[in-house]
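Appendix B: a complete holo record

For completeness, this appendix reproduces one full record from the ligand-bound portion of the collection. The bound molecule is S-adenosylmethionine. The inputs are the chain sequence and the ligand SMILES; the output is the full three-dimensional arrangement of the complex, encoded as structure tokens. No fields have been trimmed.
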Amino acid sequence: MTDRQKITLTGAQETLLATLYGKALDTRARRPILGDREAVRVMRRIDYDFRRTGMTATTAAGVALRARQLDDWIVEFMTAQPESTVLHLACGLDTRPHRLARPATVRWVDVDYPEVVALRERLLPVPEGDYRQIGASVTGEEWLAQVPADRPVVAVFEGLSMYLREEEGRRLVQRITGRFPGGQLLFDVYGSMGIRMQKLVPAVRNSGSTLHWGVDDPRVIEGWHEGLVCLDALRSVDMPGLELLPAVGRAQMWVLARIPRLRDVGRILRYRF
Ligand SMILES: C[S@@+](CC[C@H](N)C(=O)[O-])C[C@H]1O[C@@H](n2cnc3c(N)ncnc32)[C@H](O)[C@@H]1O
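The structure of the chain with S-adenosylmethionine bound, as generated:
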């Protein structure tokens, strides 16, 4: 194929290929968890050595489970609040706005670095309905002003927090909770042990990126904004659907769940404000 898009991203941006590939592998699995066909289409249009991601059947299923959990929470939010905004930060090449049916009254905003948004524009169809993209670093102070603050928001950021420094994560949480009339924050975190073991993650090692922020106690974040309440803190080792992992992955999770210092290695968090 000659029209495939050559990828020159490095660092945290390059890691979007790992999650994309994970979703594509899951779709081709015997028992798909997410079944994201658009991810397969996008992956096929990319000229990149996906072996660099180090994705295996087990880690791909883990990526799919995390994405499915966040999808379920977003759908729950949109159903309860059909006049709302979905703020999808660090979207990478994730096809969530294509994957999820949403009420016509929901505004969807995808945000990532300008290079990544440019890639999305080349590789992904424009989703239907009220949709826009913003090319910016989420740590900047300017981009959020482009998102109307007239409705409740569900801000979802998958695979982002660990690339931020804690202070940047705190500012991000405070800018979102301070701007909108209410809503939810959905995001995954590494624990500090996960941050220490980061070089064991092939996508991190091979992209030359560095992880900084680990969260051991999700309640600490509640103190960052008045009325911010943690609704869920799901350990990766306890996620619904783990029985769908390949046998080797199920065994790994079983072991991790029984080692106190390792069982908090990753979590998916849901807050309301
Ligand atoms: C592991 S990928 C996850 C991508 C996507 N959420 C997914 O699950 O497929 C990490 C993403 O975070 C983005 N990212 C990291 N730091 C960022 C920042 N400061 N501002 C905007 N995006 C950022 C990268 O560009 C990349 O798309």
